[in-house]
Write a structure and sequence with these properties.
It contains eleven helices and eight strands. The protein is an alpha/beta fold. It has a single domain, classed as Vaccinia Virus protein VP39 (Rossmann fold), CATH 3.40.50.150. β1, α5 and β2 form a beta-alpha-beta unit. It is globular, with a radius of gyration of 18 Å. About 3% of the residues have low confidence.
């Protein structure tokens, strides 16, 4: 850890409360990880009890991340990734998927949870070209000017901005649409934005409402589901790539593998100015 990094860590890491559930650690628990506390597991179990297909949807979202990153690296030639709200490292991390295709791919993980970043930094201690920063994605200027972002990524060249299962934690009065625009406007032409976002569950609406209410009470963080028109409105000026803004099970599914439809939208969009690759 260099001097800038150490200073940032000392100034920004709050005291970790092992008795308050964390969205990043709950997500880790749902994925079968071990970097979580008893209070996270309790909150995760309560949410799964309220919405029976929740854990399956979470795991389908992780599979969606893998398909998107592989497509970006293998088919679209992307070599740089900025993962916003990356969470606790677990199986199928972005750098693992991207570097399976291109060992020189560079990745910066961004999260506001100090436990998530501490584990990410431990995992990445001997990995060149991959960094993790403690930062708030709601402050695009601070993220994009962070020394480790600037040292790792060339923002004058195309980059893939990844926002998986994170913007549904940001309420409308904090203007998530403006955050999306800020990241894409600062990105070089030819960059991509990938997103997954919770949607209203039309099959289990009461169960979803119960889960979201319980989750907000236990974590202090609300989940805001949005429909396709709302999410699509954030992508004005970008070219949405096939197959469009669809539920994650419909986005380039693995051949021969059928999944249930989950109340999660997924999309990949391209910033014009450099030709999008086709595959």
């Amino acid at each position: 850890m260099d001097s800038i990094d150490a200073a940032e860590w000392a100034l920004n890491v709050p005291e970790i409360d092992p008795y308050k559930p964390s969205p990043a650690r709950i997500y880790d628990y749902w994925l079968g990880g071990s970097q979580n506390f008893a209070v996270d597991r309790q909150a995760g179990e309560q949410a799964m009890a309220a919405l029976p297909n929740l854990q399956d949807a979470i795991r389908a979202n992780r599979q969606f991340l893998g398909r998107v990153v592989h497509h970006l690296a293998a088919d679209l030639g992307v070599t740089q990734f900025l993962d916003l709200g990356s969470g606790v490292p677990t199986v199928g991390n972005v750098h693992e998927v991207a570097r399976y295709v291109n060992p020189t791919a560079k990745v910066v993980y961004v999260d506001i949870d100090p436990v998530a970043i501490a584990h990410a930094r431990a995992l990445l201690a001997d990995v060149d070209g991959v960094e993790a920063i403690l930062a708030d994605l709601r402050q695009p200027d601070k993220v994009l000017t962070h020394p480790l972002v600037r040292e790792t990524l060339d923002l004058s060249a195309p980059v893939a901005i990844l926002t998986f299962a994170v913007f549904h934690f940001i309420p409308d009065d904090q203007h998530p649409d403006a955050m999306v625009r800020a990241y894409t406007e600062h990105a070089a032409p030819g960059s991509y934005l990938a997103m997954s976002h919770g949607a209203p569950d039309t099959v289990l609406p009461r169960e979803q409402d119960t889960m979201m209410n319980d989750y907000a009470q236990s974590t202090g963080v609300r989940i805001i589901t949005r429909d396709a028109d709302q999410i699509g409105g954030w992508l004005t000026g970008l070219d949405i790539q096939p197959p469009g803004l669809v539920t994650i099970d419909q986005w380039r599914p693995e051949p021969g593998i059928e999944q249930p439809t989950y109340a999660v939208y997924g999309v990949l969009a391209h910033k014009p100015g450099a030709p999008a690759q086709t595959a």
